[in-house]
Amino acid sequence: MAATQEEIVAGLADIVNEIAGIPVEDVQLDKSFTDDLDVDSLSMVEVVVAAEERFDVKIPDEDVKNLKTVGDATGYILKHQG
Amino acid sequence: MPKLKPSKGAPYARILGVGGYRPTRVVPNEVILETIDSSDEWIRSRSGIETRHWANDEETVAAMSIEASGKAIADAGISAEQIGGVIVSTVSHFKQTPAVATEIADKLGTNKAAAFDISAGCAGFGYGLTLAKGMIVEGSAEYVLVIGVERLSDLTDLEDRATAFLFGDGAGAVVVGPAPEPGIGPTVWGSEGDKSETIKQTVPWTDYRDGEVDKFPAITQEGQAVFRWAVFEMAKVAQQALDAAGITPDDLDVFIPHQANERIIDSMVKTLKLPEHVTVARDVRTTGNTSAASIPLAMERLLATGEAKSGDTALVIGFGAGLVYAATVVTLP
């Protein structure tokens, strides 16, 4: 069953917490991965791969650069999830 | 039709000795920062690299290879005349004819050993090792020298902030020879030419010769795409190499991945779920990424510092431009 927006944000929060050690409550829709959450370009790849597994979605390399905020990623997953 | 006599080789092969050569000039991040807008902290956090070695005019591909090979031959306890094959993996020897392997074989004092160069980027050591094992088991050589050598400083764009800090120079060599038990497991290797744009030389030499570009060719890469492939796809290949050798991560003593970037190494270790007791090579910190030379250089350092010992079981995996990859399990010399 497809995940809701809330479930995706919560899932991303768990992933960002696991990879970058950021408190889950800091992961909000308007937060930028690099500027606000200390997720650098390489950690972002780890976040993307974990999100792909969790939400059954494919996020190609060329789309990763467009996912600047948690909201961008959530929207992408909502649209593309299997 | 006459019946041909079959060749007769050794039952198995293993690495008998290892040697390395690191150029005398140590280059700290501060030198890199003279040509790019970055910081020591940024370089360390993205790559783990603190220093690398850059070769001087005397430290040629051949000269560094001869130094490393001399140590490997001494470590193996054989003489140069016993070597029947010399395989050199490099992408940074700028005189392609004749193969640099022939000069190395001659200067080392081999007895007209078969000698040739291969091009398999950062997977070159694993490719060479696999060829060497085949030659020994098939019977066309008793001992084979496998050399990974690079002068990547010659192919580095010092104004590219994504790669200027990454590359280093050096040579690593191993002697492979006959063994009563398998000392080199099955190789899991391959190529993905559909991803050839991910890591590449910027332009062909001829474009530079013809004045179509101002900058000498350099190695460039798509960092995120390389990272994803190296960590997640190569972890699968590494697992396949363990399976092919019939062992589990618990059986490993040492993990020697290509020293591309410490972040890739960290993530591979995590993805492979390697147990705590496995020693992980992190030579990249002070050697940088030396492509085909990185695995034998890291192997030599782990043995020299005592972090690994002779007889240990090590997983080695190389991956890079092609894209190409090669993974196998070896017994350390």
UniProtKB/TrEMBL annotation, chain A:
GO terms for biological process: lipid A biosynthetic process. It is found in: Cytoplasm. GO terms for molecular function: acyl binding; acyl carrier activity. PROSITE patterns: CARRIER, EAL. Its main location: cytoplasm. Pathway: Lipid metabolism; fatty acid biosynthesis. The modification O-(pantetheine 4'-phosphoryl)serine is found at S41. The keyword Lipid biosynthesis applies. Pfam families: PP-binding (PF00550). 4'-phosphopantetheine is transferred from CoA to a specific serine of apo-ACP by AcpS. This modification is essential for activity because fatty acids are bound in thioester linkage to the sulfhydryl of the prosthetic group. InterPro entries: ACP, ACP-like_sf, EAL_dom, PP-bd_ACP. Belongs to the acyl carrier protein (ACP) family. PANTHER family: ACYL CARRIER PROTEIN, CARRIER DOMAIN-CONTAINING PROTEIN. Carrier of the growing fatty acid chain in fatty acid biosynthesis. This is Acyl carrier protein. It comes from Streptomyces regalis. The lineage of its organism: Bacteria, Bacillati, Actinomycetota, Actinomycetes, Kitasatosporales.
UniProtKB/TrEMBL annotation, chain B:
One of its GO terms (molecular function) is beta-ketoacyl-acyl-carrier-protein synthase III activity. Residues 116-193 form the Beta-ketoacyl-[acyl-carrier-protein] synthase III N-terminal domain. Signal peptide: none annotated. This is Beta-ketoacyl-[acyl-carrier-protein] synthase III. Catalyzes the condensation reaction of fatty acid synthesis by the addition to an acyl acceptor of two carbons from malonyl-ACP. Catalyzes the first condensation reaction which initiates fatty acid synthesis and may therefore play a role in governing the total rate of fatty acid production. Possesses both acetoacetyl-ACP synthase and acetyl transacylase activities. Its substrate specificity determines the biosynthesis of branched-chain and/or straight-chain of fatty acids. Gene3D superfamilies: 3.40.47.10. Its main location: cytoplasm. Keywords: Acyltransferase, Cytoplasm, Fatty acid biosynthesis, Fatty acid metabolism, Lipid biosynthesis, Lipid metabolism, Multifunctional enzyme, Transferase. It is an enzyme of class 2 (transferase). The lineage of its organism: Bacteria, Bacillati, Actinomycetota, Actinomycetes, Kitasatosporales. It comes from Streptomyces regalis. Pfam families: ACP_syn_III, ACP_syn_III_C. InterPro entries: ACP_syn_III_C, ACP_syn_III_N, FabH, Thiolase-like.
